[in-house]
């Protein structure tokens, strides 16, 4: 089987600007669908909708929109939204030294420097940040270049001051490793993303990265602080939580579509993962959205 080639995404700043800003009215997110990384720090604001996000070894489901900051060379994919009336997405990509190698050393930039450091693990922002800063992020694209730059710096500063953030990648998996490790993890993560609904044999995955099964298991645990089996299981459970939110199908079908062959195992795993049964999770989500 041919290994999946990892993606290093090349990003060119917008014309007349030191950073890139793009807006999408329909967030099918083809540009983010594959596991990829880039030196640029990425700020993503999705005004509404739900989907899956994967940042480093963190996998989760979001609803009611998203506001997230992804650090330099931190691999990620997802952010797809479905079945929502509004699908607006704004993506800002900033090279760490986009204003010169020393700009974060200025006394006025201490908050932004702290924010960029925390972004190495991925940051999820809360409702207050989304409500107040989300519209400002969307409006940046319509400003003249200088106003856009000043607006971005103000938004980044406010994101640090609002103090309603959560570190996503708590186990500190970053891609600041040798390129060989980067390629290996990209191959593995892409394979899981494409085959999680099937039986995944350890031998098959280990062969993709030219390792023996014991060596691969040790390598994956050392790199991500998770066993490969737990990572796949968590990925399936996140997908199940997305299906519970978006599809009106029974729980047995959701279990099957998420890669679980045994409904009892799915029910136990889902409750261990979320603290709720699948039916309770769906009901509470409906109540929240209503």
UniProtKB/TrEMBL annotation:
Keyword annotations from UniProtKB, A to Z: DNA-binding, Transcription, Transcription regulation
Pfam entry (one): Cupin_2
PANTHER family, sorted: ARAC-FAMILY TRANSCRIPTIONAL REGULATOR, TRANSCRIPTIONAL REGULATOR MTLR
Family matches, as InterPro entries: Cupin_2, Homeodomain-like_sf, HTH_AraC, HTH_AraC-typ_CS, RmlC-like_jellyroll, RmlC_Cupin_sf
PROSITE patterns noted in UniProt: HTH_ARAC_FAMILY_1, HTH_ARAC_FAMILY_2
Name recorded for this polypeptide: AraC family transcriptional regulator
UniProt domain HTH araC/xylS-type: residue ranges: 186-284
Domain of life: Bacteria
Keyword Transcription: yes
SMART domains noted in UniProt: HTH_ARAC
Keyword Cell division tagged: no
């Amino acid at each position: 089987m041919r290994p999946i080639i990892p993606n290093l995404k090349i990003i060119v700043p917008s014309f007349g600007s030191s950073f890139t800003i793009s807006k999408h009215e329909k967030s099918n997110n083809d540009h983010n669908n594959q596991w990829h990384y880039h030196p640029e720090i990425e700020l993503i604001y999705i005004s509404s909708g739900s989907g899956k996000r994967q940042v480093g070894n963190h996998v989760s489901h979001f609803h009611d929109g998203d506001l997230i900051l992804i650090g330099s060379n931190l691999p990620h994919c997802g952010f797809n939204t479905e079945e929502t009336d509004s699908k607006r997405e704004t993506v800002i990509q900033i090279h760490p030294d986009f204003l010169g190698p020393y700009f974060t050393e200025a006394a006025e930039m201490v908050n932004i420097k702290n924010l960029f450091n925390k972004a190495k693990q991925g940051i999820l922002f809360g409702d207050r940040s989304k409500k107040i800063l989300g519209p400002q992020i969307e409006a940046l694209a319509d400003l003249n270049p200088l106003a856009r730059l000043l607006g971005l710096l103000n938004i980044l500063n406010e994101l640090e001051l609002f103090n309603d953030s959560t570190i996503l990648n708590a186990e500190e998996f970053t891609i600041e490793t040798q390129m060989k490790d980067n390629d290996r993890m990209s191959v593995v993560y892409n394979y899981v993303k494409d085959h999680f609904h099937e039986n995944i044999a350890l031998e098959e995955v280990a062969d993709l990265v030219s390792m023996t099964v014991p060596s691969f298991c040790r390598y994956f645990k050392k790199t991500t602080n998770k066993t490969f089996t737990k990572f796949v299981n968590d990925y399936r459970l996140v997908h199940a939580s997305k299906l519970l939110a978006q599809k009106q199908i029974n729980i047995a079908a959701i279990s099957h579509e998420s890669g679980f062959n045994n409904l009892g195992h799915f029910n136990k795993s889902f409750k261990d993962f979320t603290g709720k049964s699948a039916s309770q999770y769906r009901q509470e989500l409906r109540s929240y959205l209503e």
